[in-house]
Amino acid sequence: MKFTIVIPCYKCEAWVKGCIDSVKAQSGDWECIIRVEPSSDNTVAVVRREVSDERGLDGEGRSLADPRFVLLEGDCPSGGPSLSRNIGIERATGDYVLFLDCDDALAPESLTQLEPFLASHPDVATMAINWDGNIRDTWEGIEGPLSGTEATIRLAEKQAFPLAMAQQYICRTQFLREKRLQFVSGVYHEDEEFFPRLLYLADSVLPTHLPLYLYCIRQESMTTASQARNVVAIAKVMKCHLDFWRDAQPAEAVTRAWTRTWLSMFFYVFFHPKASANTPAEKTRQALKELFCGDEAQLLRDFASYASKPKRLGLAMARFSAITGILWPTRIFFALYYSLCERGIRKGDCVCK
After folding, report:
1. Phi and psi torsions of 177, nearest 5°
2. Predicted TM-score of the model (pTM)
């Protein structure tokens, strides 16, 4: 079995060597496609030094020193990893694709440990995230294989706001191509947009629970950057979700699962007292207006009709703020909403599902 490891690189001079070293240490049959976008540091030079020598690359970007590595260079920054990941999917020759960020790493023998789980050829397998020593397994307590519908529903039952990192999924290459699954370029929070489509369209999803992805937290990374842009990005992600829901026409149980997870994401980024504390009010108004007063307004109302009563009330408050531009009543509502949620979680019965 062959793996294709796809690494988007941008402004990661200080970390990318460790990332590449973790790939070099893997056993088994693999290739690694690295796409570097231009930045103000020496990322390109570091990557070239690590994967090639004076012989350089062939016409396809493959290293003449180690043909397992393919180095591609972008002409300009694209604003995120989506384009590089999509090119990686197109160029992949492996049976499975694994996404790795340039400041993260794979645990030793990750591919060898994954291979027995992939012998049954699931469309998607999962692994846990080792987050600076803290293990985060989105799929803890859920065993497979599951259909995409089952996986969507079970995960929503377990977590209202599941971790949506693309890096925790190992995807069968042919499945990605058959379903035309690609990341939406130019959308910040691209993983949140991609992950519901990935799960739902899969015929089989297999959690492995193996903590093989070593996640590094750094202040300069895309995911730890300014929270101010999150509201505009999540509004765009929600619009993508709604378009997918309309086109997929899923079973009601799936729609209800998505109302729980998608609206939880929306509420959290826009109105959670901590998450939204540094977001300028004007940014929030702009994003709300785009979502509630644009082309998707009716679609959002149709979608929300499947949500729980607390979530429908939360959406009504958000819509009020979108129309009037007045935020403080909605913020007061959500301060109470999250207070009740936290009390419910402590009692084992969250009222905000």
Report:
1. -75, -40
2. 0.92
